[in-house]
Fold TetR/AcrR family transcriptional regulator.
Amino acid sequence: MPVVRLASDDPAWGNFEHGNCELEKMRLYTAKTIGRSAKAETSRNEILSAAANIMRRHGYAELTLRNVAAKVNMKAGSLYYHFSSKDELATEVMRIGVEAVERDVREALDQVSPIDSEQRLITAVHIHLNALLRSSEFVSSHIRCYPFVPDRVRFELREVRRRYDLLWLELIGEFINRPARGDEVIYIWHILVGALNQSLEWFNPNRHSIDDYARQIEIMLRQFRSQRPL
Amino acid sequence: MPVVRLASDDPAWGNFEHGNCELEKMRLYTAKTIGRSAKAETSRNEILSAAANIMRRHGYAELTLRNVAAKVNMKAGSLYYHFSSKDELATEVMRIGVEAVERDVREALDQVSPIDSEQRLITAVHIHLNALLRSSEFVSSHIRCYPFVPDRVRFELREVRRRYDLLWLELIGEFINRPARGDEVIYIWHILVGALNQSLEWFNPNRHSIDDYARQIEIMLRQFRSQRPL
DNA sequence: TATTATAACTAACACTTGTTAGATTAACAG
DNA sequence: CTGTTAATCTAACAAGTGTTAGTTATAATA
């Protein structure tokens, strides 16, 4: 019946399970494992994953400690053994998210020639989209919930976020041969980030292709370069 | 200190007042005024505006009946004289939003040659951006809160939203000379809508220019056409 | 096995939420 | 001025929130 099939038409919209990249999670989790027993570490990771899942699917408003606890067969109060507050839990989920996607992008860029600025930007687009839409609920929960999270949480995340933002500004600056902090680069950055991150609200893995979408974004990006002298 | 000034760095982020387009509001409100006294109508409109303001600035989770009531010097219970539920209030705010921006875009398109598909698309971009970032909190609250609103509210809005979506698909289809329902058009539509609507999260009227941003979007759009035969 | 630290539970707290019924005021008709 | 309708308030409700203190069960260590 719907002429255009919108994400919002799908009853299961937003309820897809992401591929379980357990290896990736492990790498992230263990990065900051200090003085925690194996069992505590496992529980903590389950809690983080459950929280990320709720945040990605239903938004920050639906992230309640009782919801999270139920997903890991615990009671709300038990979560305080692993996190000192709801804010800390949310911060940790989102911190894992940015750090994951930044690490993935940087690792992929290491395999690309430093002077091929077009291939570098395109690579970053692919990696970011895959993290967002396929591999990591930590990434998607961060992107989806950041604007609605309490001030304190946003404040805690400002440095990791800025690092990732600067990476993009530099990639774009190199690509269009302009200063990374000029208005031009910044506006293009906003266009690109908007196109990438809004996909969370419509992308349906059963109906859409990450690569197809990334290809259209590549086409768009080339225009910004072709408008300018090299 | 921040290298790149992000919206989230600004303490007043999201707290800008939109230009008071009272005339526009009147046109919208009165469109469905049936069997309501002048006083009731005024109160109802104040409630709608207050709700839209909260939704745009703080998101749907912060929209509480007590918050809204306080803004219009009422008590929470009094709102039930004008709306039968919180859902109905939210639905009405968002319905006004889509209908407003769709009407604005269509009226502007009436002034553009039907065969100048580039100018038509560019016009729509400008009108949409201005509604979103400057003139209407009903539009911005809709865009910002739609993904987080209860299912019932989204269901109520599906028709008005689809009408507006189809308008864009047709504009893009004409512009790149492709069927409005093909994958190509739909992906470009998602890119464009993402770039437009995400601006809600970073745009700061004291620091950015709507026209500058719209111009960058124009550059982007031309690439999609130039890639194809006419 | 006995002891101890770990990890979870119970049950409540103070508070906020949407919503409702009934009382109260304000505006207006006769 | 009187009576009636329209508009708002009061005060509570049941449900849900983050958080805490005290308790129990589990697991590791001696």
